[in-house]
Amino acid sequence: MGLYDEFHVCCEASDKDSALAAMAECEHDLAIVDISLNGGSGLNLIKTLRQNYRQLAILTLSMHDEALFAERALRAGANGYLMKQEGTEHILSAVRQVLDGNVYLSAGMLNRAAQQLMSNARGKSDQIAGITEREFEILHLIALGFGTRDIAEKLNRSTKTIEAHRANLKDKLQLDSGRDLVRFAIQLLGEK
């Protein structure tokens, strides 16, 4: 079995319209899309493909700097981003990964993404560093949708005590209203 025997290339297209026409002709497992297409953007093609073919694996293969375009391609609906200068083994690995339902990014992009996640987690942690354990517990209950009276019952405290904790939370988190506190709690701790 040769290096490429596991794959069959159905068609090629140089622009969005011919790519969409080719997609309509037969069933495809994977689309490899360049960011630069004749007369248009590969990002727009990716968005259209994702809307029309939800199960299609989409790999972006481009000469454009992944630091600038990989995130945009993923947001548009791609399952991976690969630079054109990568070796054949990387390309085949990327194709296999996206066909298996995984996301493919270079080691450098994975490292950047991990650093971003760690930075975001530290930022959230710093944001709530000054609140007490009881305030954190109340913030969590707010995120779960409990009101002041319900929280007071759950924690066996008076509603005035819970209201005081909520006021302290708004002050410590520099929030203007109870609605802002609820929004903050849901964004930080809400069930996904």
Explain what this protein looks like in three dimensions.
- This is DNA-binding response regulator.
- Keywords: DNA-binding, Phosphoprotein.
- The strands form two sheets. The protein has a three-stranded parallel beta sheet, with helices on both faces. It has a two-stranded antiparallel sheet with strand order 2-3.
- The mean pLDDT is 84.
- By secondary structure, the protein is mainly alpha-helical.
- A hairpin with a 2-residue loop joins strand 2 and strand 3.
- The longest helix has 21 residues.
- Helices cover 57% and strands 9% of the residues.
Q: Note the beta-strand portion.
A: 5-15%
- Low-confidence spans: none
By CATH's scheme, which homologous superfamily of the largest domain applies?
Answer: Response regulator
Total strand segments: 5
How far from one another are the termini?
Answer: 45 Å
What assembly state would you assign to the polypeptide chains in this entry?
Answer: single chain
CATH architecture of the largest domain: 3-Layer(aba) Sandwich
Helical region count?
Answer: 9
What's the overall geometry?
Answer: elongated
Helicity, as a percent range: 55-70%
Instruction: Let me know the average pLDDT.
Output: 84
Cα radius of gyration in angstroms? 24 Å
How is the largest sheet built, in terms of strand order? 1-4-5
CATH topology of the largest domain: Rossmann fold
Keywords: DNA-binding, Phosphoprotein
InterPro entries: CheY-like_superfamily (IPR011006), NreC/VraR/RcsB-like_REC (IPR058245), Sig_transdc_resp-reg_C-effctor (IPR016032), Sig_transdc_resp-reg_receiver (IPR001789), Tscrpt_reg_LuxR_C (IPR000792), WalR-like (IPR039420)
Modified residues (4-aspartylphosphate): 34
Domain Response regulatory: 1-99
